[in-house]
Design brief:
The chain has three domains: 64 residues, no CATH class; 103 residues, NAD(P)-binding Rossmann-like Domain (Rossmann fold, 3-Layer(aba) Sandwich), CATH 3.40.50; 61 residues, no CATH class. 34% of the residues lie in helices and 14% in strands. It contains eight helices and seven strands. The strands form two sheets. It has a five-stranded antiparallel sheet. The chain is globular, with a radius of gyration of 22 Å. Bound molecules: flavin-adenine dinucleotide.
Length: 264
């Protein structure tokens, strides 16, 4: 195909997408159709998104899918970042290093001893759920969580990759993580005859579970504004992160956000 034909093809693709009403998408489905068209939407996005969020694509806001990078190129990276990776030894090792010499209590619920924690600090960085902080005064926000099923298998290599996503609605999990591939490459993979995999099942959050993802639909976004207005009056508390801000963050953006906080 010549360059001119290629441009014409792209042009007509965008014309078709525009006709689908997608220049002002009202929901995730319309946004996805605008970005990738119906074939890719139905094969890769619809089933995966609906099991991830437990809601129909037509009931989800369009901005969720804007994070999906679409490139007309052979670059199969998910992110566009120049440098990508995870800390050697994992995030726990990194955090343990950062907190070395600093008194730390883990597995401790702030609300189990709220008065005490408030009395010992001039400034609090609160990373828990914002509705819980205000005792669910205006009602509960919705969250999604993930149930992990982890297995040790008697083979040295299960899927050849750290992450494989299952986009079909019929497969109950969203993806399988094979942990060794984050840090072991080439022949090293085969040195250990076993491997550990985790299947991720996305479910609605209920009390007692750990909330992971805010559900940023219109109702929740309106509700969180009420909590955020209260949070502004808490002068000695910094509300930070995906639960306290009720906002989806990847690792790099949340770290950047923390580095930019003023008046720590
Ligand atoms: C399954 C999964 C996979 C992910 N994969 C990726 C990925 O591949 N790439 C990527 O970039 N990002 C990924 N993320 C996102 C990444 O984990 C987040 O961006 C990051 O953890 C956000 O940091 P945070 O500080 O906002 O929240 P968190 O890391 O959740 O930190 C909040 C902390 O507050 C604590 N807390 C909450 N309530 C209380 C309380 N009442 N008392 C005491 N402590 C409390 C929690 O225990 C937690 O330690 C993934 C997230 C999940 C859930």
């Amino acid at each position: 195909m010549g360059l001119r034909q290629f441009h014409c093809g792209i042009q007509s693709l965008f014309e078709a997408l525009k006709k689908a009403g997608a220049d002002a998408p009202r929901n995730l489905e319309e946004q996805a159709l605008f970005l990738v068209g119906r074939d890719i939407y139905e094969k890769l996005i619809k089933g995966y998104t609906e099991k991830q969020w437990g809601r129909k694509c037509t009931d989800l806001p369009p901005f969720i899918i804007k994070r999906l990078p679409v490139r007309l190129a052979f670059d199969n990276n998910y992110f566009n970042d120049k440098y990508q990776g995870i800390p050697i030894g994992g995030y726990n090792k990194l955090i343990e290093g950062l907190l070395k010499g600093i008194e730390t209590q883990v597995n401790t619920d702030f609300f189990a001893n709220r008065e005490y924690f408030e009395s010992i600090a001039e400034k609090i960085v609160y990373t828990g759920a914002i509705d819980e902080y205000f005792n669910y005064k205006f009602g509960k926000l919705e969250y999604r969580t993930v149930r992990f099923e982890t297995e040790t298998l008697d083979c040295s290599n299960y899927q050849g990759n750290a992450v494989v996503n299952y986009t079909e609605r019929e497969v109950p999990y969203t993806r399988i993580i094979e942990h060794k591939h984050f840090e072991t490459f080439g022949d090293e993979v085969y040195k250990n005859p076993k491997t550990v995999i985790s299947k991720e099942f996305s479910t609605e959050w209920t009390e007692g579970q750990e909330p992971y993802y805010p559900v940023n639909n219109d109702a929740n976004n309106q509700l969180v504004q009420q909590y955020k207005a209260l949070a502004q009056n808490e002068k000695n508390v910094i509300f930070g992160g995906r639960l306290a801000e009720y906002k989806y963050y990847d690792m790099a953006p949340i770290i950047e956000q923390v580095l930019n906080i003023e008046n720590f």
